[in-house]
Amino acid sequence: MEHKVTNSITNQLTINKDNKENLSLFDKIKQLKILLILFLYLIFLSYIFTNTPNNTFMLNLMGLFFVFFSFFKIINIKEFKESFQNYDPITKYIPVYGYIYPFLELLLGSMFLLNSNLKIAAFSTIIILSLTTSGIIYKLSKGEIFECACLGAVFKIPLSKVTVFENCLMIVMSIYLLL
C-alpha cells in the first residue's frame, strides 16, 4: 500500500513534458505543492524554535532549509546527482560535486542551527547558491524543462522560478548575516 501511495504522489508530480505549455496555473501550483508545504513547514519550525531575536528565526530557517533538503537528496544520491547535473554549472563539469553537494547542505544547515562559524557558512551559502541559481536561471531562460533536484529524486517537481526565489532568499539572508 505504501509503495502505491508513493508512486501515486510521484506520478502526480512528474513533469508532463508534452503538455508543458498547456498547464493551468492550478496545475502548476499542484506540481509545486510538496515544495511549498515543506517550505511553510520550515518557517513554522523556525518560528517554534525562536524565542526572541529576528536573526535567531533566520538562522533556524536557513539551517532547517539546508538540513531538510539535504535529507531528500541523500535518500537517492545517485539520481539526485544525475538530475542536478542538468543545471548546476559545477556538477556539469565536475560530476563528483553532485555527490558532495547534499553533504555541503547538511554541513551548512548544521552550522546555522548550531550558530557556529556563521560568517563562513553565510559566505559559502552565497557562493554555492549563486552558482547553482545562475545555472537555473540560464536553463529557465532557454525554456528548457527539467526536474528540480531540490527534493532529490524522492519527488519529481519542475525546475521553476520558485527555486530561484528560494535560493535568492537564502542568498539575501546570508548577505544580511555578513553585514
Quick take:
With 179 residues, the protein is mostly helical.
Key words describing this protein structure:
2% strand; mainly alpha; single chain; globular; 179 residues
What this model shows, in words?
The protein has one domain (2-178). 73% of the residues lie in helices and 2% in strands. It is mainly alpha-helical. The chain starts with a helix and ends with a helix. Strands 1-2 form a two-stranded antiparallel sheet.
Instruction: Determine the mean pLDDT.
Output: 81
Distance between the first and last residues' Cα: 51 Å
Q: Would you list the SSEs in sequence order as H and E? A: HHHHHHHHEEH
Can you summarize the main beta sheet? 2 strands, antiparallel
- Poorly predicted runs of 5 or more residues: 1-19
Strand-pairing-aware structural class: mainly alpha
Number of separate structural domains: 1
Proportion in helices: over 70%
Q: Please work out how many helical segments DSSP would assign.
A: 9
Shape: globular
Annotation, overall tally of beta strands: 2
With strands numbered from the N-terminus, the spatial order across the biggest sheet is 1-2
Output the radius of gyration: 16 Å
- Strand content bin: under 5%
Write the layout of secondary structure elements.
Layout: H1 2-13, H2 25-31, H3 33-49, H4 54-75, H5 77-84, H6 89-93, H7 97-113, H8 118-141, E1 147-148, E2 157-158, H9 161-178
Antiparallel strand pairs: 1-2
Helix pairs in contact: 3-4, 4-7, 5-7, 7-8, 8-9
